[in-house]
Fold this sequence. Notes:
Elements: E1 2-3, E2 6-9, H1 13-24, E3 29-33, H2 41-44, E4 50-51, E5 60-61, H3 62-73, E6 79-82, E7 86-93, E8 96-101, E9 106-109, E10 111-114, E11 120-123, E12 153-157, H4 161-170, E13 176-181, H5 190-201, E14 206-209, E15 211-217, E16 224-229, E17 235-238, E18 241-244, E19 248-251, E20 262-263, E21 266-268, E22 281-283, E23 288-289, H6 297-315, H7 326-329
Parallel strand pairs: 1-9, 2-3, 2-10, 3-6, 10-22, 12-13, 12-18, 13-14, 21-23
Antiparallel strand pairs: 4-5, 7-8, 8-9, 11-19, 15-16, 16-17, 20-21
Bound molecules: flavin-adenine dinucleotide.
Flavin-adenine dinucleotide (FAD) is lined by residues 9-15, 32-35, 40-42, 45-46, 51, 53, 85-86, 115-119, 162, 253-255, 285-287, 295-298, 300.
Amino acid sequence: MNRSDILIIGAGPVGLFTVFEAGLLKLKCHIVDSLAQPGGQLNEIYPKKPIYDIPGYPSILASDLTTNLLEQIAPFKPTFTMGERAESLTKVEDNLYRVTTNKGTELYAPVVAIAGGLGSFEPRKPPIENIAQYEDIGIDYIIRDPEKYRNKRVVIAGGGDSALDWSIILSDIAAEVVMIHRRTSFRGALDSVEKVMHLAENGKIQLITNAQAVGLGGEGKLEFVAIEEDGKPTYPHKTDYFLPLFGLAPKLGPIADWGLDIEDNAVKVDTFDYSTNLRGVYAIGDVNTYPGKLKLILCGFHEATLMVQSAFKHIYPEQKLSFKYTTVAGVNGF
Ligand SMILES: Cc1cc2nc3c(=O)[nH]c(=O)nc-3n(C[C@H](O)[C@H](O)[C@H](O)COP(=O)(O)OP(=O)(O)OC[C@H]3O[C@@H](n4cnc5c(N)ncnc54)[C@H](O)[C@@H]3O)c2cc1C
Protein backbone atom coordinates (compact mmCIF):
# COMPACT_ATOMS: atom_id res chain seq x y z
CA MET A 1 0.00 0.00 0.00
CA ASN A 2 1.37 3.44 -0.99
CA ARG A 3 1.06 5.41 2.26
CA SER A 4 2.77 8.68 3.07
CA ASP A 5 2.27 11.36 5.74
CA ILE A 6 1.39 14.00 3.15
CA LEU A 7 0.10 13.19 -0.30
CA ILE A 8 0.84 16.17 -2.52
CA ILE A 9 -1.27 16.64 -5.64
CA GLY A 10 0.84 18.62 -8.11
CA ALA A 11 4.61 18.65 -8.72
CA GLY A 12 4.77 22.36 -9.49
CA PRO A 13 7.17 24.59 -7.54
CA VAL A 14 4.81 24.77 -4.56
CA GLY A 15 4.22 21.02 -4.37
CA LEU A 16 7.98 20.38 -4.61
CA PHE A 17 8.88 22.89 -1.89
CA THR A 18 6.26 21.32 0.40
CA VAL A 19 8.47 18.20 0.49
CA PHE A 20 11.32 20.29 1.90
CA GLU A 21 9.28 21.95 4.64
CA ALA A 22 7.59 18.66 5.51
CA GLY A 23 10.97 16.90 5.55
CA LEU A 24 12.22 19.31 8.21
CA LEU A 25 9.38 17.99 10.40
CA LYS A 26 10.26 14.39 9.43
CA LEU A 27 7.03 14.02 7.46
CA LYS A 28 7.24 11.74 4.42
CA CYS A 29 5.71 12.94 1.14
CA HIS A 30 4.42 11.31 -2.01
CA ILE A 31 3.69 13.47 -5.07
CA VAL A 32 1.27 12.73 -7.89
CA ASP A 33 1.15 14.77 -11.11
CA SER A 34 -0.67 14.29 -14.39
CA LEU A 35 2.35 15.58 -16.33
CA ALA A 36 5.33 13.35 -17.06
CA GLN A 37 7.85 15.89 -15.71
CA PRO A 38 7.90 17.86 -12.45
CA GLY A 39 7.91 21.68 -12.49
CA GLY A 40 4.27 22.55 -13.22
CA GLN A 41 3.87 25.82 -15.12
CA LEU A 42 7.61 26.48 -14.86
CA ASN A 43 8.52 23.57 -17.10
CA GLU A 44 5.31 23.30 -19.07
CA ILE A 45 4.73 26.94 -20.02
CA TYR A 46 7.89 28.99 -19.62
CA PRO A 47 11.01 26.85 -18.98
CA LYS A 48 13.41 29.28 -20.69
CA LYS A 49 11.99 32.46 -19.17
CA PRO A 50 13.94 34.17 -16.41
CA ILE A 51 12.14 34.74 -13.10
CA TYR A 52 13.22 37.85 -11.19
CA ASP A 53 11.27 37.65 -7.92
CA ILE A 54 12.67 34.58 -6.20
CA PRO A 55 14.45 35.84 -3.07
CA GLY A 56 18.21 35.44 -3.33
CA TYR A 57 18.18 34.95 -7.10
CA PRO A 58 18.37 38.21 -9.08
CA SER A 59 17.41 36.07 -12.09
CA ILE A 60 16.81 32.35 -12.53
CA LEU A 61 15.45 30.39 -15.50
CA ALA A 62 12.17 28.66 -14.65
CA SER A 63 13.59 25.24 -15.57
CA ASP A 64 16.65 25.87 -13.37
CA LEU A 65 14.40 26.70 -10.43
CA THR A 66 12.71 23.32 -10.87
CA THR A 67 16.10 21.58 -11.02
CA ASN A 68 17.20 23.37 -7.85
CA LEU A 69 13.99 22.49 -6.02
CA LEU A 70 14.43 18.83 -6.93
CA GLU A 71 17.99 18.97 -5.59
CA GLN A 72 16.81 20.70 -2.43
CA ILE A 73 14.18 18.04 -1.66
CA ALA A 74 16.32 15.02 -2.63
CA PRO A 75 17.61 14.44 0.95
CA PHE A 76 14.03 13.79 2.04
CA LYS A 77 13.57 11.04 -0.56
CA PRO A 78 10.07 11.89 -1.81
CA THR A 79 8.33 9.32 -3.98
CA PHE A 80 6.47 10.19 -7.19
CA THR A 81 3.58 8.96 -9.30
CA MET A 82 4.05 10.92 -12.54
CA GLY A 83 1.82 10.95 -15.62
CA GLU A 84 -1.32 10.12 -13.60
CA ARG A 85 -4.15 12.49 -12.71
CA ALA A 86 -5.64 12.42 -9.19
CA GLU A 87 -9.25 11.59 -9.99
CA SER A 88 -11.07 11.00 -6.70
CA LEU A 89 -10.67 11.71 -2.99
CA THR A 90 -12.26 9.39 -0.43
CA LYS A 91 -12.11 9.43 3.36
CA VAL A 92 -11.51 5.77 4.23
CA GLU A 93 -10.95 6.12 7.98
CA ASP A 94 -11.19 8.90 10.51
CA ASN A 95 -7.63 10.02 9.79
CA LEU A 96 -6.91 8.54 6.37
CA TYR A 97 -7.68 9.61 2.80
CA ARG A 98 -7.42 7.61 -0.40
CA VAL A 99 -6.70 9.35 -3.69
CA THR A 100 -7.26 7.27 -6.80
CA THR A 101 -5.68 8.23 -10.12
CA ASN A 102 -7.10 7.93 -13.63
CA LYS A 103 -4.94 4.80 -14.03
CA GLY A 104 -6.39 3.21 -10.87
CA THR A 105 -3.36 3.77 -8.61
CA GLU A 106 -4.43 4.14 -4.97
CA LEU A 107 -2.49 6.54 -2.75
CA TYR A 108 -3.15 6.84 1.01
CA ALA A 109 -2.29 9.59 3.51
CA PRO A 110 -3.78 11.27 6.60
CA VAL A 111 -3.06 14.64 4.97
CA VAL A 112 -3.70 15.66 1.38
CA ALA A 113 -2.05 18.85 0.11
CA ILE A 114 -3.62 20.04 -3.11
CA ALA A 115 -1.01 22.01 -5.07
CA GLY A 116 -2.75 21.61 -8.41
CA GLY A 117 -2.02 25.12 -9.74
CA LEU A 118 -4.16 25.95 -12.71
CA GLY A 119 -5.22 22.34 -13.08
CA SER A 120 -5.10 21.33 -16.70
CA PHE A 121 -3.61 23.83 -19.11
CA GLU A 122 -6.13 25.15 -21.62
CA PRO A 123 -4.87 28.09 -23.69
CA ARG A 124 -7.42 30.78 -24.55
CA LYS A 125 -7.66 30.84 -28.34
CA PRO A 126 -8.76 33.83 -30.42
CA PRO A 127 -11.96 33.29 -32.42
CA ILE A 128 -10.34 32.83 -35.85
CA GLU A 129 -12.22 30.35 -37.98
CA ASN A 130 -9.34 28.29 -39.43
CA ILE A 131 -6.99 28.58 -36.43
CA ALA A 132 -6.87 24.81 -35.73
CA GLN A 133 -5.53 24.22 -39.27
CA TYR A 134 -2.27 26.05 -38.47
CA GLU A 135 -1.64 24.76 -34.94
CA ASP A 136 1.95 23.41 -34.76
CA ILE A 137 2.69 24.63 -38.30
CA GLY A 138 3.00 28.29 -37.39
CA ILE A 139 0.77 28.80 -34.36
CA ASP A 140 1.96 28.28 -30.80
CA TYR A 141 -0.07 29.19 -27.71
CA ILE A 142 2.76 28.36 -25.31
CA ILE A 143 6.40 29.30 -25.91
CA ARG A 144 8.62 26.53 -24.61
CA ASP A 145 11.94 27.44 -26.25
CA PRO A 146 12.53 30.96 -27.64
CA GLU A 147 15.34 29.59 -29.83
CA LYS A 148 12.64 28.12 -32.09
CA TYR A 149 11.96 31.68 -33.28
CA ARG A 150 15.58 32.71 -33.93
CA ASN A 151 15.75 34.76 -37.15
CA LYS A 152 12.04 34.12 -37.83
CA ARG A 153 9.22 36.64 -38.21
CA VAL A 154 6.69 36.49 -35.39
CA VAL A 155 3.35 38.15 -34.72
CA ILE A 156 2.40 38.18 -31.03
CA ALA A 157 -1.17 38.94 -29.98
CA GLY A 158 -2.26 39.90 -26.46
CA GLY A 159 -1.96 42.66 -23.90
CA GLY A 160 -1.00 40.86 -20.67
CA ASP A 161 2.28 39.86 -19.04
CA SER A 162 2.89 36.88 -21.27
CA ALA A 163 2.53 38.85 -24.55
CA LEU A 164 4.62 41.74 -23.19
CA ASP A 165 7.39 39.54 -21.75
CA TRP A 166 7.74 37.40 -24.86
CA SER A 167 7.73 40.44 -27.14
CA ILE A 168 10.66 41.80 -25.12
CA ILE A 169 12.59 38.52 -25.09
CA LEU A 170 11.96 37.73 -28.76
CA SER A 171 12.94 41.25 -29.87
CA ASP A 172 16.54 40.07 -29.34
CA ILE A 173 16.08 36.71 -31.06
CA ALA A 174 13.52 36.90 -33.87
CA ALA A 175 14.10 38.60 -37.23
CA GLU A 176 10.93 40.64 -36.71
CA VAL A 177 8.49 41.05 -33.82
CA VAL A 178 5.03 42.49 -34.44
CA MET A 179 2.84 42.91 -31.37
CA ILE A 180 -0.87 43.42 -31.91
CA HIS A 181 -3.27 44.37 -29.16
CA ARG A 182 -6.98 45.18 -29.21
CA ARG A 183 -6.62 48.24 -26.98
CA THR A 184 -4.08 51.02 -26.43
CA SER A 185 -3.59 50.19 -22.73
CA PHE A 186 -1.98 47.02 -21.40
CA ARG A 187 -2.82 44.74 -18.48
CA GLY A 188 0.77 43.72 -17.68
CA ALA A 189 3.45 44.98 -15.31
CA LEU A 190 4.23 48.68 -15.79
CA ASP A 191 7.93 47.96 -16.17
CA SER A 192 7.24 45.53 -19.06
CA VAL A 193 4.88 48.03 -20.73
CA GLU A 194 7.59 50.70 -20.58
CA LYS A 195 10.16 48.30 -22.04
CA VAL A 196 7.85 47.42 -24.94
CA MET A 197 7.18 51.12 -25.63
CA HIS A 198 10.90 51.80 -25.60
CA LEU A 199 11.62 48.89 -27.97
CA ALA A 200 8.82 50.10 -30.27
CA GLU A 201 10.30 53.62 -30.35
CA ASN A 202 13.66 52.12 -31.32
CA GLY A 203 12.16 50.00 -34.07
CA LYS A 204 12.91 46.65 -32.36
CA ILE A 205 9.19 45.84 -32.04
CA GLN A 206 6.42 46.89 -34.37
CA LEU A 207 3.54 47.74 -32.05
CA ILE A 208 0.05 47.81 -33.56
CA THR A 209 -2.71 48.78 -31.10
CA ASN A 210 -6.48 48.97 -31.59
CA ALA A 211 -5.94 45.95 -33.80
CA GLN A 212 -6.60 42.23 -33.93
CA ALA A 213 -5.80 39.18 -36.00
CA VAL A 214 -8.92 38.19 -37.90
CA GLY A 215 -7.64 35.64 -40.40
CA LEU A 216 -4.79 33.28 -41.23
CA GLY A 217 -3.45 31.93 -44.49
CA GLY A 218 -0.70 29.85 -46.10
CA GLU A 219 -0.10 26.66 -48.06
CA GLY A 220 1.02 23.76 -45.82
CA LYS A 221 2.23 26.22 -43.16
CA LEU A 222 1.31 29.63 -41.83
CA GLU A 223 2.40 32.42 -44.18
CA PHE A 224 0.37 35.44 -43.16
CA VAL A 225 -1.91 36.89 -40.51
CA ALA A 226 -4.77 39.13 -41.60
CA ILE A 227 -4.79 42.20 -39.35
CA GLU A 228 -7.70 44.53 -38.77
CA GLU A 229 -6.50 47.89 -37.47
CA ASP A 230 -8.67 50.77 -36.25
CA GLY A 231 -11.65 49.42 -38.19
CA LYS A 232 -9.77 49.97 -41.51
CA PRO A 233 -9.84 47.28 -44.25
CA THR A 234 -8.02 44.08 -43.26
CA TYR A 235 -4.48 43.64 -44.59
CA PRO A 236 -2.21 40.55 -44.68
CA HIS A 237 1.07 40.62 -42.76
CA LYS A 238 3.70 38.05 -43.77
CA THR A 239 4.98 35.98 -40.86
CA ASP A 240 6.48 32.63 -39.92
CA TYR A 241 4.71 32.37 -36.56
CA PHE A 242 1.56 33.68 -34.94
CA LEU A 243 1.68 33.53 -31.14
CA PRO A 244 -1.71 34.31 -29.53
CA LEU A 245 -0.77 34.77 -25.85
CA PHE A 246 -4.11 35.35 -24.15
CA GLY A 247 -3.32 33.28 -21.07
CA LEU A 248 -4.65 29.99 -19.86
CA ALA A 249 -8.24 29.26 -18.97
CA PRO A 250 -8.17 27.67 -15.51
CA LYS A 251 -9.77 24.23 -15.38
CA LEU A 252 -9.70 22.65 -11.97
CA GLY A 253 -10.55 19.23 -13.39
CA PRO A 254 -11.57 16.45 -11.00
CA ILE A 255 -10.60 18.50 -7.88
CA ALA A 256 -13.77 20.54 -8.43
CA ASP A 257 -15.88 17.45 -7.58
CA TRP A 258 -14.31 16.56 -4.23
CA GLY A 259 -16.75 18.46 -2.01
CA LEU A 260 -14.38 21.39 -1.48
CA ASP A 261 -15.57 25.00 -1.19
CA ILE A 262 -14.79 26.44 -4.62
CA GLU A 263 -14.83 30.09 -5.66
CA ASP A 264 -13.80 31.38 -9.11
CA ASN A 265 -12.24 28.04 -10.06
CA ALA A 266 -10.07 27.95 -6.93
CA VAL A 267 -10.26 26.21 -3.55
CA LYS A 268 -11.23 28.44 -0.63
CA VAL A 269 -8.82 28.19 2.32
CA ASP A 270 -8.33 29.54 5.83
CA THR A 271 -5.18 31.66 5.75
CA PHE A 272 -4.27 30.51 9.27
CA ASP A 273 -2.96 27.22 7.85
CA TYR A 274 -4.32 26.97 4.27
CA SER A 275 -6.78 24.28 5.32
CA THR A 276 -9.90 23.65 3.27
CA ASN A 277 -13.40 22.81 4.49
CA LEU A 278 -12.36 19.11 4.58
CA ARG A 279 -10.34 18.28 7.71
CA GLY A 280 -6.84 17.09 6.78
CA VAL A 281 -7.08 18.52 3.26
CA TYR A 282 -5.10 21.66 2.46
CA ALA A 283 -4.77 23.74 -0.72
CA ILE A 284 -1.63 25.75 -1.49
CA GLY A 285 -0.21 27.71 -4.42
CA ASP A 286 -2.16 28.88 -7.46
CA VAL A 287 -5.01 26.44 -6.76
CA ASN A 288 -6.28 28.27 -3.66
CA THR A 289 -8.08 31.53 -3.05
CA TYR A 290 -8.47 33.89 -0.11
CA PRO A 291 -8.78 37.66 0.29
CA GLY A 292 -5.64 39.29 -1.09
CA LYS A 293 -4.38 36.13 -2.84
CA LEU A 294 -1.45 36.63 -5.24
CA LYS A 295 -0.59 33.86 -7.69
CA LEU A 296 3.17 33.99 -7.12
CA ILE A 297 5.70 31.25 -6.44
CA LEU A 298 6.93 33.14 -3.38
CA CYS A 299 3.43 33.20 -1.87
CA GLY A 300 2.99 29.48 -2.55
CA PHE A 301 6.27 28.74 -0.72
CA HIS A 302 5.00 30.69 2.30
CA GLU A 303 1.68 28.85 2.23
CA ALA A 304 3.44 25.46 2.07
CA THR A 305 5.62 26.38 5.05
CA LEU A 306 2.68 27.26 7.29
CA MET A 307 0.60 24.36 6.01
CA VAL A 308 3.05 21.62 7.05
CA GLN A 309 3.08 22.95 10.64
CA SER A 310 -0.67 22.43 10.80
CA ALA A 311 -0.38 19.06 9.01
CA PHE A 312 2.10 17.86 11.66
CA LYS A 313 -0.33 18.76 14.46
CA HIS A 314 -3.13 17.03 12.56
CA ILE A 315 -1.10 13.80 12.21
CA TYR A 316 0.49 13.89 15.69
CA PRO A 317 -1.94 15.81 17.93
CA GLU A 318 -0.12 14.61 21.08
CA GLN A 319 3.39 15.65 19.98
CA LYS A 320 4.93 19.03 20.66
CA LEU A 321 6.46 20.72 17.63
CA SER A 322 9.64 22.66 18.34
CA PHE A 323 10.72 25.18 15.76
CA LYS A 324 14.38 25.09 14.59
CA TYR A 325 16.37 27.07 12.01
CA THR A 326 18.05 25.07 9.22
CA THR A 327 21.26 27.03 9.94
CA VAL A 328 21.29 25.45 13.40
CA ALA A 329 20.00 21.95 12.72
CA GLY A 330 21.10 21.45 9.09
CA VAL A 331 18.81 19.55 6.76
CA ASN A 332 19.33 16.10 8.22
CA GLY A 333 19.36 17.21 11.84
CA PHE A 334 15.63 17.68 12.11
C1 LIG B 1 4.18 33.08 -18.43
C2 LIG B 1 4.17 33.05 -16.92
C3 LIG B 1 5.13 33.77 -16.21
C4 LIG B 1 5.15 33.75 -14.82
N1 LIG B 1 6.12 34.46 -14.16
C5 LIG B 1 6.17 34.40 -12.80
C6 LIG B 1 7.18 35.12 -12.08
O1 LIG B 1 8.00 35.82 -12.67
N2 LIG B 1 7.19 35.01 -10.72
C7 LIG B 1 6.27 34.26 -10.02
O2 LIG B 1 6.34 34.19 -8.79
N3 LIG B 1 5.29 33.59 -10.70
C8 LIG B 1 5.22 33.64 -12.04
N4 LIG B 1 4.22 32.97 -12.71
C9 LIG B 1 3.23 32.23 -11.90
C10 LIG B 1 3.83 30.92 -11.38
O3 LIG B 1 4.28 30.12 -12.46
C11 LIG B 1 2.78 30.18 -10.56
O4 LIG B 1 2.43 31.00 -9.45
C12 LIG B 1 3.32 28.85 -10.05
O5 LIG B 1 3.66 27.98 -11.12
C13 LIG B 1 2.31 28.17 -9.14
O6 LIG B 1 2.88 26.99 -8.71
P1 LIG B 1 1.98 25.77 -8.23
O7 LIG B 1 2.94 24.72 -7.78
O8 LIG B 1 0.94 26.26 -7.29
O9 LIG B 1 1.17 25.30 -9.53
P2 LIG B 1 1.63 24.83 -10.99
O10 LIG B 1 2.96 25.33 -11.34
O11 LIG B 1 0.47 25.19 -11.87
O12 LIG B 1 1.70 23.25 -10.87
C14 LIG B 1 0.54 22.51 -10.60
C15 LIG B 1 0.74 21.06 -11.00
O13 LIG B 1 -0.39 20.32 -10.55
C16 LIG B 1 -0.70 19.34 -11.53
N5 LIG B 1 -2.10 18.94 -11.37
C17 LIG B 1 -3.22 19.72 -11.41
N6 LIG B 1 -4.31 18.98 -11.18
C18 LIG B 1 -3.89 17.71 -10.98
C19 LIG B 1 -4.54 16.48 -10.72
N7 LIG B 1 -5.89 16.40 -10.56
N8 LIG B 1 -3.79 15.37 -10.61
C20 LIG B 1 -2.45 15.40 -10.75
N9 LIG B 1 -1.76 16.54 -11.02
C21 LIG B 1 -2.49 17.67 -11.12
C22 LIG B 1 -0.42 20.04 -12.86
O14 LIG B 1 -0.16 19.08 -13.87
C23 LIG B 1 0.84 20.86 -12.50
O15 LIG B 1 2.04 20.18 -12.81
C24 LIG B 1 4.18 32.99 -14.10
C25 LIG B 1 3.22 32.26 -14.81
C26 LIG B 1 3.20 32.29 -16.20
C27 LIG B 1 2.15 31.50 -16.94
